[in-house]
């Protein structure tokens, strides 16, 4: 499989065009990238939602949605996340391919206009953001932050990261900090917005049946960001002298046992795909060792899985365990990693993991947004993605590569969320 990607650098904007006739819609995605910092992560997290809810041209959400409906059911969405120690704000518009329309409405131009208005022409009152809109979106974001505490699976994952990376920016939640959100004002938010427009590294991805010359001309007309420096997060190699264990008690029935390891491998490293396959064998899929041996055979966990943090060099094991069985579950979970380290990997485990990873990638590439995310993954790491190389790289991973990757892991932190009163396990 091959992606026809065209790259244009224009007016401070990195334009990536993927020409394809596979989809009946065209997708336009802006990515704003900055370093994660405690000072502005919360205000930045709020920005996309304020910008989406009201623009100078379409001052209410209802008016904006009505305009999108007029564009043959176009859609707009925003998102906030982190990749390693980068904070990423996403603005996306999806429109039907105008080549399928009888009246030839210029939807490519209209889509870029929507993004231009949403991002660069916000609704202002007295030179700053609307207080009404700001407060409404603050309430919504506050609900999201509070919801993490109620969802104990997400809460345990976040707490592990906070403990494990306590002196690193990665500890920050991409949606910010509750106490900081309370302090955000229309004025301070507008200052953060100006910093984003002036300093962020900005990429525009366009996936669909479009004309490169037309896109270049339209972007030149609608977007002028000014030249800016590329943004790089310094890779930190944390020395682990001794792993630590953190135990937290709450009024809960199902405990959480999460273990964080430093993989010392990030996206783009020579052994990255070996580490990814190792993670798949350990706990990435329903056929993985954690699922089969901890959940199915031993019945020690409600769920047990592992996750690879590609841009940070971490592997995190997550499990839901009866509070009375946490100690035994920890022993069995760690045994699964030791099995891989010692080479107890079947040919079926290796081949099945490769097959599932390959199918997952094919499914991801079967949508415009998936294509954007795969390509942006590479751009974030400074390593452009070559799809064919990825597939071949997965296929070429050997059992010995997996063993070597597993033996690079260093246990950093164990986080346990358990009940205040623990019944003895049978």
Automatic annotation (TrEMBL):
Keyword Hydrolase: yes
Ligase in keyword set: no
Domain Peptidase M16 C-terminal per the UniProt entry, residue ranges: 184-355
Entry keywords, A to Z: Hydrolase, Protease
Superkingdom classification of source: Bacteria
GO biological process, one term: proteolysis
Pfam families xrefs: Peptidase_M16_C (PF05193)
InterPro entries named among the record's database cross-references: Metalloenz_LuxS/M16 (IPR011249), MPP/UQCRC_Complex (IPR050361), Peptidase_M16_C (IPR007863)
Molecular function per GO: metal ion binding; peptidase activity
This protein's name: Zinc protease
